[in-house]
Design brief:
By secondary structure, this protein is mostly helical. It contains ten helices and no strands. α3 runs antiparallel to α10 (241-272) and α5 (97-124) runs parallel beside α10 (241-272). The longest helix is centred in the C-terminal third of the chain and has 33 residues, at 203-235. The termini are far apart.
Length: 285
């Protein structure tokens, strides 16, 4: 037990003294937040006619992403500046409040975005209860693992519990499975819907490309988080710091990119005056 405790302290000390993962997470995280902010500013004036519930979800996701960015920046600044070469209890062992907040906002953002995609699967899949239910169940599972992880970390008040808890990879794997179901379902239905369309530019194919690309983006990010967790346990490194910092932001960007993809499609439709006659895709609202 004492050797394991010493290994955890050494791991945290090496993380602070060699801040490569921390700096990478901060840099990529801030860049992704800038992208999501631009996408949100594009969404607001472009889709004023969206349903109020959808606009509320978009605002909530962006607010969670903003809070995640603030808390992560606070944690990184303290880790890279205040706690640089500092081996006090507060800097090495105590669970910081800003990191706890960042973890909570990250898996909560993922949950809301996955619920958003569950509604898309419901529409595009012609109200397929099995697929929609599978998405919602896996989203709830990853959210549940996230809550248990956060509760365990806050209860112990030790930051090392975050890196050794089995609920951390379970949460990431739950997100990866949910994203895989979403991506596969949407790809299958949109690919089937293309049959018989003879437009000069295939709008459904473009929409399918955006859905699949964003789904793979979030799925691979969650999968990398789970794989690196087990790698860290064997090698004594802390590589999960970087993907953990950007995982929630990939979900926010994914949802906003899918919503804003409608702009180009609608502009071309209006220019060519071509109706979108696909029963299971009424308006992607």
């Amino acid at each position: 037990m004492g050797c394991r405790f010493y290994w955890q302290v050494s791991l945290l000390y090496r993380t602070y003294s060699d801040p490569t993962e921390l700096f990478a997470g901060l840099t990529v995280g801030l860049a992704l937040y800038g992208v999501s902010a631009c996408q949100y500013l594009l969404y607001l004036p472009t889709f004023r006619d969206d349903k109020r519930l959808l606009k509320s979800v978009v605002f909530l996701v962006f607010a969670l992403d903003t809070l995640n960015t603030i808390t992560l920046t606070s944690f990184y600044c303290r880790s890279l500046i205040v706690c640089r070469w500092n081996t006090s209890y507060a800097c090495t062992l105590e669970m910081p409040w800003d990191l706890s907040s960042a973890i909570g906002t990250s898996f909560t953002t993922a949950f809301f975005v996955q619920c958003f995609y569950a509604h898309r699967v419901w529409i595009i899949g012609n109200r397929n209860k099995f697929l929609t239910g599978a998405v919602l169940i896996t989203a709830l599972v990853q959210f549940g693992f996230g809550i248990v992880l956060l509760g365990e970390v806050c209860h112990s008040d030790l930051i090392n519990s975050l890196f050794v808890s089995p609920f951390s990879p379970a949460n990431a794997l739950g997100s990866a499975i949910c994203d895989a179901i979403i991506t596969t379902s949407i790809y299958f239905y949109l690919r089937s819907s293309r049959a018989g369309l003879l437009w000069k530019e295939n709008y459904i194919q473009k929409l399918n490309f955006v859905f699949v690309r964003m789904g793979m983006f979030t799925c691979l990010g969650a999968l990398a988080m789970a794989i690196l967790y087990y790698h860290d346990q064997k090698s004594g490194t802390n590589l999960t710091t970087a993907p953990g910092a950007i995982l929630g932001k990939t979900y926010a960007n994914s949802m906003l990119a899918v919503l804003n993809a409608r702009k180009g499609i609608r502009d071309r439709q209006q220019a060519q005056e071509l109706p979108l006659e696909i029963p299971t895709l009424p308006s992607i609202h």
